[in-house]
Fold these 4 entries.
Entry 1:
Amino acid sequence: MEEDQKRFIERGSHKGKGLAVFTSGGDSQGMNAAVRAVVRMAIYLGCKVFFIKEGYQGMVDGGDNIEEANWSSVSSIIHKGGTVIGSARCMDFKERAGRLKAACNLVKRGITNLVVIGGDGSLTGANLFRQEWSSLLDELLQTSQINKTEREKYKQLNIVGMVGSIDNDFCGTDMTIGTDSALHRIMDAIDAIVSTAYSHQRTFIMEVMGRHCGYLALVTALTSEADYVFIPEMPPPRDWPTKLCNKLEQERTAGQRLNIIIVSEGAIDRDGKPITAEMVKQVVVDNLKQDTRITVLGHVQRGGAPSAFDRVLGCRMGAEAVMALMEATPETEACVVSLDGNQAVRLPLMECVEKTKAVAKAMADKEWELAVQLRGR
Ligand code: F6P
């Protein structure tokens, strides 16, 4: 094993292989660290490396959107939020015609290794692309868009995913790239809220992001001593207004000068209907007459510099993704690089995507215990 590793990381040992990296879906802090690591590890191993700008749209449109990268293209980006190569939610790639154009653009540049950094939708798209690759190339050959030599030379497409999302909503990884930074951003905001709430003896309702996932809300609640939290995976009991008001009153009676309630953006009740910050405020005002304010943090959570954790996470996952691509054989399944107990590991991409989709299904079926269980640790 040690011998293998020594041989594998030899500089220039994968000379001339075409590899491209792109970011897709919502951006997140730490994506740049991952892009940087991919580019530098791939260059170190001898690959010809490309950025695909603006996500799948750039792959479909080609032209200047696919640009060769060098060592210095990724200098001074590790500390930046967002993604310097752009991201988009792309409709064209959902159609075979779009994927056909994308395949042609890759073949013309000799790219047969792809690193996709995005959420479960982006990773599912990548897997489908890989499954179709052979038939796409056949069609390109039949329509004379590529020649026989290109058809043969680029017949194997390897794909590796990394999950970039502040939501921490992907099954199989302990943390997605961006979650830790988002939590830092939320903590700063909530500490500020707490000081003003204390002065005026107010109740604050804070809405945090997480469309279908309560991780940010849950961790925020734990680390800010919140009095109540609403998350999508575990809706509150039907009599939550009474329970909430009792809890708030109890805290005030015990001498607390403020109350904090965290509402996940995707919070729902037991019938699957949204519980909004505005609804919670109404309950508090109507029943307790407390001076109550709402703060919706919004995209502030996704912006700004990445934390040290996300920078390191991006670096480690990026390097591992390149190694996984270089080791891939025609039999190797597309994988996702995940964090498991502080180790970067490779897991079958579609297995993780399926598990993640099963959580959404359990929520849609109102099987709350199952949803929580499927989220995993
Ligand atoms: O998935 C990440 C996320 O930030 C969610 O928490 C949020 O619901 C969504 O993206 C917002 O998407 P958009 O930036 O397209 O409004």
Entry 2:
Amino acid sequence: MEKIDILSLDLPELEKWLTEMGEKKFRGKQIFQWLHVKRIFDFDEMTDISVQLRAKLKEHFCVNRLFVQKKLESSIDNTVKYLYKLSDGNFVETVLMDYSYGKSICISTQVGCKMGCRFCASAIAGFVRNLEPSEILMQIYETEKDMGIRVSGVVLMGIGEPLDNYDNVIKFLRLISDKNGNNLSLRHVSLSTCGIVPRIYELAELHLGLTLSVSLHSADNDKRSEIMPVNRTYNMNSLIEACRSYIEKTGRRVTFEYAVIDNVNSSDKDADKLADLLRGMNCHVNLIPVNKVRERSYRTARSGVSEFAKRLGQRGINATVRRTLGSDIEAACGQLRRDAAGQNTNGGAVC
Ligand code: SAH
């Protein structure tokens, strides 16, 4: 009998299982709190649960822990990068970042990615599988346990496309914010997507209160199709339309991610086109110096990014340049996982 992954169950599901097994419903809340509040993952340590019920839990459930395969700590800025090994031997990356307002964690949602963005290391290594809700969640719980901290913000910007693993990501968001459990306000969560348009509409309907980040990287439809194949399925106009609708439905500002790449999307004309595209929208632009990936020749001149930001600002578009974190520990998405699979890339930082 295959055991049930207990950390992927929400409270009503856990209560349903317990009542079907002839147990009292309130036991569900107790067990849920052991897991999500006290972070006790060994059923034997759940001391207010009877020995008989603990035995039943052990028989039917498993807790899929993540194992630290590699842990890199930046000596420059306290960024910590984990390569976690999953129970099936696959790897995912998680990055803990230290900001003045608290710790923020960048987590992965898939093993690999199908989206094929030209500049992204995750894309080169290909797609393996979706992460379960518990595997997304445990990147946070294991990191918090290892570091003895609590994170104040979560960004879904690691390996994978969150909206391509929609159901598990939504379940994860419900688990992490459950009032009876970890109780993180989703206002402190950002979800980054390359632009799976129908899912943006669906997400808006849920009114979760999270920040939607959209990886735009070009305001020119043809150019965007070249560097982001997803644009051939959901073109830029349909993406911007979906973002407008998201803003209107949720009242939340959207962030646009833009990796500035020399000779690709960094000219004055590119900045003007972006300003025209976003004018009047309740949004913010986050400019990223592109990270080096060995197989690609993409580069960013630091001065290019600030020039680009300045030009956007002059055209009324609110833009910031993302601080590069963990530049000494290869913190860019997908690079460690590929190393583990024997494929090397260069350093740099994204998350
Ligand atoms: N699939 C999602 C989230 C993962 S990627 C998305 O596309 O948004 C997280 C962010 O890092 C995205 O904005 C992505 O475009 C960006 N990114 C990927 N590789 C990069 C690189 N080499 N340099 C700079 N940003 C990169």
Entry 3:
Amino acid sequence: MPGILYIISAPSGSGKSTLVNELRSLVPYLEFSISYTTRAPRGSEQNGREYYFVSRREFEEMIRREEFLEHAEVFGNYYGTAKRFLREAEARGNDLLLDIDVQGAAQVKERAENSVSIFVLPPSRKDLERRLRNRSQSEASTSKGGGMSDAVIERRLLEAGKEIEKYSKYDYILVNNDLQEAVECLKAIVVSERKLRSGKALDDADQKMLGEARKCLQAAQAQSGKLQEILSSFSPAPSG
Ligand code: ADP
Ligand code: 5GP
């Protein structure tokens, strides 16, 4: 059976990279797909670690050679997942984690039979703005600089409002409020989906994990009221 593709999407600044980094140290047999992008490196980012940074021409050449499983234009730059990451993870018997936007997630869901999708939400628009500003400040203080301007932050917040509307297309919704709790929940989703798909019997510890994961199922979250609160924090205030 091919490995599981875990798709994680979130509005920029929600804490997805932080969560994914934590997860990688906790769950074995899980590889991380390093995307290609035409955007410039930020802060301490390194080519081949966070992304492969390429020119538009190189990216378009890769599209022409059909090297991408999916690709999309996000904030005016190309981003794409190379098919080779999927092939390599499969050859090693590992699962693969993709950190991609809502457009890419829709393409992968259509093309891959064995995927699990997770949408990460910030606790509110205010928290998202704070996180974007904090990250921007710490990036600006690195030797390469590269913090975001107010205009870029505003654009990301506006975009976040639109992305968040796509939450219902995902299998799981994860609210990243307390980091440790969110990491535990993400781990529970990954581990219990793996166990369920293995066809093996679940022991008590597995059942506990499954219970944790199920709290984040989209349907469970949609009924919780918390989700509506988060969504409405992104809606423009009525005028007049
Ligand atoms: P993303 O990958 O979604 O764009 P990052 O992982 O870069 O977001 O996180 C954005 C900022 O928010 C970072 O400065 C990070 O340290 C901070 N952050 C992440 N998770 C939390 C959390 N649960 N509570 C407070 N701050 C957080
Ligand atoms: P950032 O520039 O903040 O690193 O990422 C901006 C957005 O691009 C995020 O929503 C991130 O998930 C998305 N992204 C990163 N890599 C890919 C990719 O390979 N494909 C797609 N479709 N989106 C990506």
Entry 4:
Amino acid sequence: MDLRNTLSDKPLMGLFRLMRDYRLIYLGATLSLGVAAAARTGTYLLLGQFVDNILGNESAAQSLPLVALGFLGLAVVTGVFTFLSGTLAARTSESIAQRLRNYIYDHIQRLTFTYHDQTKTGELIQRSTSDIDAVRRFFAEQAIGAGRIFLLFIVNLIALLYLNWQLALYSIIIVPFTILMSFFFFQRVSKAYEAYQEQDAVLSNTLQENLSGVRVVKAFARQAYERDKFDVENWEKFTRGRRLLLMHSLYWPISDILTGGQMLAGFTIGAIMAINGEISVGTYLSYAGMVIWIIWPIRNLGRLIVQMSTGMVSFKRITEVIQQEREPLDEGDYIPGDCVQGKFVFDDVSFAYEEENPVLQNISFECEPGQIIALIGSTGSGKTTLANLLPRFYEYTDGSITLDGVELKRYPRNYLRGQIGVVEQEPFLFSRTIRENITYGVDRQVPEEEVIAAAKAAAVHDSIVSFPNGYDTLVGEKGVTLSGGQKQRLAIARTIVKDPRILILDDATSSVDMETETEIRAALERLMENRTTPSAQLRTSFIIAHRIQSVMIADLIVVLDHGRIVQIGSHEELLGQEGTYRVIFDIQTRIEAELEKEITSVGQDAQSVSTQ
Ligand code: DGT
Ligand code: MG
């Protein structure tokens, strides 16, 4: 079932729809409560009968064991059905919460890149945990509570009417007042709780960010600043929490005064009636027992209405996430019979993350299958953005990109992403074993030799075997902490195992020294050559790099500046032109020459020292 179609803007309606598949169980839970309530009321009626007709009446003494059995039976029924109702309610609420949790987890990872760019992680965590828990409580306590209150009220009211209708009416005068007061508080508690949850999300986010950035905090010695920042947010949460609590604590005494007064009035009126002989002592005793059970639901109705607001607010917050559009992964009408060939044509492509702020403008170039295209340019010039358009992480706003002559937008995202391997600029590794990280991108069982071959090609095999558990070493908090270069190499190995037709290396070797980079490239090339089937060849590679050495081997070099192509051509062509490329080349070769000179002179100094 797609939960999204069942949700509604009206929280109560949405919550009701969420119960689909569980309504029968819930009905069972509520009916069990009704039986339990009826049995308890039966106990009071039996007590009245016992006092009036059996106590002190010798002729009726033989029915004493029967009465005892009656009390016992009613107690057992009350106990069994209360238990049954609790179990059924728990099952309903846990199942609904579990389903919701699974759904939102899956949903979040299917939302668009743009949504994730704009949404804070802490906010999403908050909605998938604490808000879902509030919804769970709604079903475990409040929804079942509503049934319970309703049934208790009805059963006891009928019994009271049967006992004495005047007494019954006296006992429920308070109902309209309680309901009015509950709605008054309901609105205030809703607002206070919403504000509280929002602040809670801010706090989760602050904590999450601080933990992710703990190294930066330490490196800049900003602990005190961070602590104060947290303190401010925490104080805000405290004040909002206090406001929420104040609402609750105001509600309770007022409601207690109302219901307490009602109970006292009921007892007094009943007592007067008993003294005047209008009702029997047994009836009074039954009444005294039952009046508590009619006041209790009235009192709790208010509490319930107030508490329901929290479930509804949380549900609204969850709905906001669930109603976000997913990235349509299968949308697209073109899938080639074989794999893609890798001919890209960019025609006047423009792109903006936010309207009015173009990041790429009028990009036009084309490449043949199997070519290496290098993207070079200053930081922020749009290289990563350009690469992100290929797997359709983002949609270009203007112009056209075709792959093998077909508009990119016609390929389903899932298919395209299966064909393209991206080594991200800041690769992310999971807290799993190294082997699991390397084989992350594929569903099949990857043979050990293949994992090792990929690691060797990415020049990370030697580092891996030096870890105590080799390929079974855990990455991250509980295992080894990898260096930036090792992470990049593992990310490369992961992409090699995926065996994509099109490769994007986004600054993938920036943390790797030049020598290793050459090694990795040679290994990659060897790997491509060794492929046996012709379809298994790497078609087109996009390399993003800052080093001239990394890009000079490319068939086509695209120089970007402020989102526009300023130069395009092969290494030789670009060197022959005045422009950015030659400037970068000159600077880098000069720096390298100076470095080399220094290294040689240091070497010579060392030699002369050792020969002395
Ligand atoms: P790099 O990696 O530092 O060498 O720089 P590039 O060339 O990879 O730059 P890129 O494409 O990441 O960013 C180009 C511009 O777009 C830059 O001004 C930052 C902006 N930008 C990047 N990612 C996002 C995003 O997710 N949202 C928005 N609004 N802007 C973004
Ligand atoms: Mg980048």
